[in-house]
Sequence to fold (246 residues):
Amino acid sequence: MGDDSLVYYSSVGDFTEQNKSKEHELDYEKLYDEGTIFKQIQNYTKNVLLKKTFEGLNNNLRKQNFDYQYSGTTANMIIISGKVLTCANVGDSRCIMATIESSHTESRKNGKDNSIISENTDHSDWKCIVLSRDHKPEFESERKRILGFGGRVEALFDTETHKQLGPYRVWLKDQNVPGLAMSRSLGDEVARKAGVVSDPEIREIELEHQDKFIVQGSDGIWEFMSNKEVIDIVIPYWKDNDPTTA
Fold:
């Protein structure tokens, strides 16, 4: 890929209403103008541009013909410009990259913001580089913001066994709603009052020749499979040049 090339990929979670009575598929191509993004890339820093894009997505949800009070989605976007990969993430969709290990792998694991990490796989020469962070309300920085908005971060407990039931969730101070299990999202208007935001967390890494493929997915994958398991499944198909089957 040449230094002047620019491509982007995105992954979004399932957008469903809390009562599960209806399912809605959003036309994300219409929610933001690709041409505008690319034309303005030289006029804005990537961080400002991406934050404006996610803000625009969230604002456009308010114009759709469904109830977004308790409805929302995650979003994970990648922009590759030349050799630089930028990942913008909201919620608990995730992006990982498979790389063939070299003497340089460990030195690049922390990125510019000390947040990009690498993990082992069952294939001895391969590493998994984690490009985004799941936005869980129990994380200290996320919890601090939610509490600052007057929200609560609590898990449900079995009244008899006192064992925790499921993940930590976001609640309004005086009401047991919305019970959102992530600290950032698009939509979920009620959760805004408790400190849930749509600001993307942005990470950047310089791509190298040993970086082979990227996997983006919603929590429907990561809830049941580890990063290592996903990479190990895809590697044989990558070697056979068969990404569709993977």
User: Anything to note?
Assistant: The CA atoms of residues 152 and 171 lie 5 Å apart. Confidence is low (pLDDT under 50) at residues 16-29. The helical segments are 28-31, 34-40, 46-61, 140-148, 189-192, 219-222, 227-239. The chain is about 25% helix and 30% strand.
